């Protein structure tokens, strides 16, 4: 069974992946434009996305900027 992380309140088998891999899996721009990622309540700088590995049981929030009014 895959190790799970919680992403925006839903469990998914992303443990062992990197933050940038998760962002790509979610269909979001890998360059990070308009995207913010926090793990355990702490923002992960974009420069660390390719090296930050997700650990089983972690809680990840992926936020996207929205336009409009």
Features:
69 residues, mainly beta, Ubiquitin-like (UB roll), 5-stranded mixed sheet
Mean pLDDT: 92
CATH class: Alpha Beta
Structural Rg: 12 Å
| Biggest sheet architecture | 5 strands, mixed
In the CATH hierarchy, the third-tier topology is known as Ubiquitin-like (UB roll)
Q: CATH superfamily assignment?
A: Beta-grasp domain
C-alpha geometry: globular
The total count of helices amounts to: 1
Listing every helix as H and every strand as E from the N terminus to the C terminus, the arrangement reads: EEHEEE
How many structural domains are formed by the residues? 1
- For the biggest β-sheet, the strand order reads 2-1-5-3-4
Structure summary, number of beta strands: 5
Q: In CATH terms, what is the architecture?
A: Roll
Structural class: mainly beta
Q: Please estimate the helix content.
A: 10-25%
SSE topology:
Blueprint: E1 5-7, E2 10-12, H1 19-25, E3 35-39, E4 42-43, E5 59-64
Parallel strand pairs: 1-5
Antiparallel strand pairs: 1-2, 3-4, 3-5
Give an overview in words.
The chain has 69 residues and is mainly beta. It has one domain (5-64): Beta-grasp domain (Ubiquitin-like (UB roll), Roll), CATH 3.10.20. It is built from 1 helix and 5 strands. The protein has one helix at 19-25, and strands at residues 5-7, 10-12, 35-39, 42-43, 59-64. The mean pLDDT is 92.
